[in-house]
Amino acid sequence: MPVPAEKSDKRGDFLIIYGSQTGQSESIAKQLCERAETELKLSPRLFCMDKTEKQFWIEREPLVVIICSSTGDGDAPDNAGKFVRRLCKNTLSNDFLKDTTFALLGLGDSNYSTFQGVPNKLDKQLRHLGATELIPTGHADDQVGLDQVVEPWLERLYPALLQYFGIDASSLPPVTKTTVVRPQEMSSDSVTPLTNDLSTSLNMASDDNAMDCSDSSQAPQEAILKPNKLQYPEDKPCLIRGASKLSQDEALRVPVASVTFLAASVTHTKLDTNEIKWQNGCKLVGTASGIHTVPVVGLIKLTGTKARKEKREIQIDISDTGLEYQPGDAFYFIFPNPRQEVNYILQRLGLLMLADNRLDVVVNPKTEKKNAIVPAHIPPVCTLRYLFTYCLDIRRSPGRPLLRVLADYTSNESEKRRLLELCSSQGVDEFTAFVRQAGLTIADVLHAFPSCLPPVDRLAEQLPRLIPRPYSAACAQSRWKNRVRFVYSLVEQPQGDGRSYARRGLCTDWLSGLKVGDRVPIMLKEAARFRLPQSASSVPMILIGPGSGIAPFLGFLQEIMHEHLSGKNTCLETERWVFFGCRQLDQDFIYRDELEAFERERIITKLVICESHEGCGSTEAPTARLKYVQDAMRAQSKEVVDFIMNAKEGGQLSKVFLCGDAVGMSKGVWETFIEIVSTHSGMSEAEAKQYLVKLKEDGRYIEDVWS
Asked: Is the model more confident about 179 or about 409?
């Protein structure tokens, strides 16, 4: 066990830092910090990684715990980039961190070719700079369930922390507590009626004029989600019923419930929320501008009537914003949660009548949580409707910590038992299958467990922040001036597998309901690596963009066309290949005319089209029936390999840009590149993979992918 450097007089002082794009790393870091304070009686300091050289200097830290994820393109999360860049400077000596001990937990998704890219880089660099490992680095995979690695890693970390500080770890409370819960017979009918007892959900502020709002029949007529009653199988595990072994286990190991720290109270007074700053004015990491409200000036349906996945275009006018962007840049769209889902949640909690009354959110004076504060994105004065519409993500699948909290507020014993099973160590597989992979929402869980009646305070503590969604500009400002277009797909998720209602993507469903003339709030996203290169007209490029992934490349090609037409660069001999794929050519070949025009003008030197399913009556099937981009790459594998290994134009090395779905396409393309490079270069598969990793490191293989 390494000996800590004497750099703090505070007993148990150590640093916890996190890098988080979606909030998962931050959530784990906060749980770790809370437990270290309340149960281990240590003194952790918690910061996001970009507070480096402001709130902390890692080289001065005897002990640091790092929890970090990777983004889809392999870059650091927006709030970690500064830290990673500093740590990876070539000027740092190999004893820069000789007095630092670290523990590292990486979060990732093996669907991405850059799986654990940033955590692996940090791990390598920490060791290179002389830091000492406290416990083995953890590599959690969201594809199979983060908890399968996170929980055991934390179980190793807690006693290691105590040992580091010379504290007896024999009495350490476990991460999970063994809870004796007698198995309950459960059927879809074994539920208790929902009560509208307001006192169990929210405090009414002391007010002589306070009204009794328990009678929801007096609520104004509102659009309210009406979940469907699902038929669950009797003979196999499902959301409400576990496998026999799990359901008969009398010693469930369940997480320790988080400490409550918020208190909410509501008055009889209505509150106008129009003047409340979006999410309390809390800055969103990774933005390059403030919020601008702009008009919608165009809406176009791009796909045919028989397309399986509808694609649409939306155009906005940024004339009054002064914003400037480059091809490859993206804009955040700020959107609300669906009103009918918000109303359902509030109705389920017996609070719909109070939806528009003044809500005060403060730190609970009785909390045992140290240094508790109201989350920065929650206005201390707002309304229930505002809180659930603009601040909290009600669509994110509930995590095990939230299920653990919900169990405490579930009165029916069989329902409570099942929630404890789903959040238990023994029930991780069923949680992954029936909650996370099924894509359930908090509304689905409340519907499936009718006696669950959590307080608003606890939901505000547990539900993550509602994050705007970024969309790449599908045009170049040099050509479109102040009009910007974006492409999105409408993905339908049907009822079933625990989902009590059909739904579309949260932001895309909102976009689809907009009309010309509506005004939408946007922010420019910070520039990333996925951007048209300098002197782009002379850079050989392979652009791979199936489906809506073609969007940013339209901006690339428009900019090159602009440079050509303006006489800035007349180089039309530079090789630029575009690989586009869709399900059916006659239904899904979006921007066909535009792409073919680029090919005629030699802006595109090779346009490769793939069709995964034969079109409805179409006679235009691609040559040799190329179904997927991977098939097209294999069909001309030698040319592709020559292109990426040898293509140069005026000293410029070729680049590969990839945009689209990570789950099937991105990983498949990456594996195909490894395969064909190995075949035509004489490299082994491992050497070919390392060659491609080097391309990524050198900025020659760049991805913008999503799942």
From this structure: 409
Give CA separation, 274 vs 271, 335, 354, 356, 519, in Å.
Answer: 9, 15, 17, 12, 15
pTM of this structure: 0.86
Q: Which residues pair with residue 241 across a beta bridge?
A: 238
Nearest to 73, CA basis, from 664, 471, 529, 473: 529
Paired sense of beta strands 519-524 and 330-333, if any: antiparallel
Residue 77, classified by CB atoms within 10 Å of its CB into exposed (0-12), middle (13-18) or buried (19+), is buried
Contact 127, 96 (CB under 8 A): no
Q: In what order do the strands lie in the sheet with 310-317?
A: 469-472, 330-333, 519-524, 292-301, 310-317, 483-490
The band of 622, judged by pLDDT with boundaries at 50, 70 and 90, is very low
What DSSP letter does each residue of 230-289 carry, written as one string?
Answer: P---SSS-BTTB--HHHHT-SEEEEEPPPPP-EEEEEEEEE---TTSPGGGGPPPTTBSS
The set of residues, in sequence order, having a beta carbon less than 8 Å from that of 534 and lying 6+ positions away, is none
| Nearest residue to 474 via CA among 547, 536, 538 | 547
Torsion over CA of 548, 549, 554 and 557, rounded to 10 degrees?
-160
Residue 69, both tokens:
């994820």
The phi, psi pair for 561, rounded to 5°, reads -60, -40
Summarize the confidence of residues 181-205 as an average pLDDT: 43
* Nearest in space to 533 (alpha carbons), one of 646, 662, 656: 656
DSSP secondary structure of 650-703:
TTEEPEEEEEEEIIIIIHHHHHHHHHHHHHHHS--HHHHHHHHHHHHHTTSEEE
CA distances from 286 to 279, 315, 437, 504, 530 (A): 16, 23, 28, 26, 14
The position carrying tokens 């989902």 is: 499
Taking residue 55's Cβ as centre, other Cβ atoms within 10 Å add up to 13
In 3-state terms the chain splits into helix, strand, coil percentages (rounded to 5) of: 35, 20, 45
Question: Which residues are bridge partners to 243 per DSSP?
Answer: none
What sign for the dihedral angle of Cα 562, 565, 568, 572? positive
Distance separating alpha carbons of residues 222 and 218, to the nearest angstrom: 11
CA distance 488 to 138: 35
Q: How far is CA 51 from CA 70, 131, 409, 525, in A?
A: 18, 20, 37, 20
Amino acid, res. 332: Y
Query: Which amino acid is it at 354?
Result: L
For 270, the token pair is 């209505």
Whether residue 408 contacts residue 257, with contact meaning beta carbons closer than 8 Å, is answered with yes
Q: Scanning the structure block, which residue is given the tokens 């794009």? A: 21
Q: Which helix (H) or strand (E) holds 593?
A: helix 592-600
DSSP characters over 475-539: S-HHHHTTEEEEEEEE-EE-SBTTB-S-EE-HHHHHHHT--TT-EEEEEEBPP-S-SPPTTGGGS
What percent of the chain shows pLDDT beyond 90?
66
